[in-house]
Write a structure and sequence with these properties.
The complex is a heterodimer. By secondary structure, chain A is α/β, with parallel strands linked by helices. Chain A contains 14 helices and nine strands. The mean pLDDT of chain B is 96. Classes of the chains: A alpha/beta, B alpha/beta. Chains A and B meet through helix 6 of A and helix 6 of B.
Amino acid sequence: MGEEDKKQDADLEIDSKKIISQKDLRHFIDIEYLSKDLVIDILDLAESFAGVSGQPVKKVPLLRGKTIVNLFFESSTRTRTTFELAAKRLSADILNINVDYSATKKGESLLDTLKNLEAMHCDMFIVRHPSSGAAKFISENVSPDISVINAGDGRHSHPTQAMLDVFTIRKYFNNFKNIKVAIVGDILHSRVARSLIHALRILEVPEIRLVAPKTLMPVDIEDMGVKTYVNMDLGISDCNVVIMLRLQNERMNSSFIPDIHEYYKLYGFSPERLEMLSPDGIVMHPGPVNRGVEMSSEVADCERSVILQQVSNGIAVRMAILSLSMQP
Amino acid sequence: MNEILIKSGQVINPLVKIVEKLDIAIKDGIVVGVGNNANVLENPKIIDASDCYVSPGLIDLAVRFREPGLEQEATVERESKAAISSGVTTVCYMPDTQPVIDTPGQVKLVQNIFNQSSDCKVYPLAALTRNLNGDQLSSMMELRQAGAIGVTNCLYPMKTPLVLRRAMEYAAGQDLIFFYQPLNHSLSNNGCAHEGKVATRLGLTGIPSAAEASAVAEAIELMKLTNVKLHLCRISSFDSLSLILDAQKSGLDISFDIAIHQLFFTEESLNGYNTMAHVQPPYRTEEDLTKLRDALEIGRNNMAICSDHQPHNQDAKKAPFPETQSGISTIQLLLPLLLEIVNDGISDLPSAISKVTYDPAKILGLNSGIIKEGLDADICIFRKNKWKFTIDKNLSSGENSPFFGREFNNRVEKTICRGKIVFDINELNL
């Protein structure tokens, strides 16, 4: 056994103890009902996995012999890839299945698709689906030995993205209790925004602001414990964290906004707007960035932009969630 | 001969809103005497109703029994049994079957199916437009002659307001009741939940109250223009209700109905993606619920409560919420649910009963919905009797009910249709 392996095994022992205390995480569907302690435990565990990527052998044997299915009913590059990497670094076998959702809608029902995959004896489904509530539905309808991880369901939830975002925020700010966070852009269609609101609320962030034109702001979202702004300058003023959301191409051609030009003027993160943040303020984006639409290239590539850290943190956070869900 | 004497029941008169202890004499399917005049029978079968209420048979303005074409979901025979167990003796049959009821032959077919396999009376509604396409008017004169009492486009949109206007004009000329479920389909935006805090949190596309209210306003204006006999179906929001009540106050002879289940749930019932709460129109806010219930208390005229009965097969609700079919199976609980509202003190008994008997009869232009000498003996006998609705008591083939496990305070004992006892709780092994 080499020096590196020994070190890894020592790390693992610590991790496993932590993991065993988490029995209620077989499925990871939504952040809304997690306790603060559990959220922090996940972040701490992710912290210990963050080191794995820096090692020459980027693997730990936690999920050796397990089979994980990336079951995507909607296209994705980033999320699918980071889940795949996370699974591989945990030594699991991973299978990528992209289901043409329009075809399933016409013929095979979602339940039948699931039953067929179950028959292949998989241990975990990582699911992305265009319908809100799909991940919960799937978790309620798979056999009891299968874990389900939500990789995005409709507009509802994208819990691993939110976890990696708060993980990234924690790297920059020791305490969630003294920061102001603004989420800017297409809140209406954003599952990331909804999950982030829950995560930030659980971590007791005192001020969560949403900034969007009224056409892209969901009705009564204040009920989730946030402040809403139509004016971006007011909305991001003095914030420590600004999370920009992607404006989907199809929104640009409908009646949500007049055009990209006006959108950029009103809600684009221009270099001038950097000045409005708190001096320690950082800029985030779940990616992929539409440069010149929601964010200028200068901002995307500036020192205060942590977009690429988010991507690398995504692997560690997903490793933490996969390993927690798969504990016996 | 075929004689029944219902003795000593608390008889509900929904017209004058009184309840009094009376005997009812029935002969050959007809009520031949009430109260002092009931002593006219020679050798009647006697029903002792001394601890019971006696109500006119219920008239349900909106049922879907799925025949023809969707027998895998439900049949007229089975759903009728669920209906009579709730005291329903007359139903309006929605035309969105397969094929759609848009020809005289289809209307006759529905009547034939009922004659052969149901104890309920049926009044078919015909499709307003061919195949419910919202564009080409159906042959309304022929449909009326075949027996259609009204026309409706169900939940399907009219292509343009101009088509809606012409459909109203034409229906008015044919003396057909215009059943219109108000919804601006563009504003409803393929939504599946009330636009509000719950839909926002669950990430579901919302249907704003304005999508219904604006269609109500449009329909009222077009009613003034066309003089059609307008009945607005399944009102769900306070905004819509206010528009209708104002129109009634201004003298318009407009009627409306509310689905019974709409008086029991709010948007909160969708939490956890409860697909049994997927209905059209959607369950709305606490305020809407209160105001809809208030409408019962005030005892509005020209207002009916219907079951909006929509049995589905099991798969219909087994999918992610937005992909499930809307609608729930309700007819077996129409009367027990209504009586819960009376129990809650929202409405007095005769006013509530009127919403499922005399009011719908008036809306349909029928001389029924009341127990009176000379009219058909359509009667429901019920009494205070606590029971729990469980899956083994479900008579409908639709198991898509949010009410399993719920307790009720009243239960139907017997239902009589055209003088024949068609339901008797004692003969049913429940």
